[in-house]
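call fold(seq) -> tokens
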Amino acid sequence: MSEYLKFDHKQILSVTMILFAIIDIIGSIPVVIELRKKAGHIQSEKATIVSMILMTLFLFLGTELLNLIGLDVASFAIAGSFVIFFIAMEMILGINLFKEDVPESVSIVPLAFPLIAGAGTMTTLLSLKSEYDTQNILVGIFLNMIFVYFVLKKVIWLERLMGKSGLNVLRKAFGIILLAIAIKLFKNNTGL
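ret:
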């Protein structure tokens, strides 16, 4: 039992960085600012807690959901590698491949899902599960949610601090990291 709960700092760091890149809360600052303008206020605590619950549930129940519809984790991971690849291309090239309407009101739905715990995050979680220990993934989720909470609370201050060009550079850098992650996931799950 104690062997099962052994935390691996290298895995935690890897998972945290992968989730940080895929959640891309820094790159989402302009969207968060727009949502805040429309609503006047963002419930940072609620959005963070709901996102963490969604990710944790999907981490534990995602495989069963896939089995229910006749898919295996490797197939989902390969499909996820394509999703991550396209998200990375959006970040690097500054284009918008996935068109999403911004809703009229801000609630848990647009902020927690799909902005923070969206399809890319869920796909990544199942892909990570095939390579990393669950307890290390949970720590990575928790660390990211602390950061997400901080960003949601301080979004206006961060925008002023980093400026548009700073946010742009960071977004492109994480796009390249995501591209490498997508290639690794594809290779590991296809046996290439």
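The mean pLDDT is 84.
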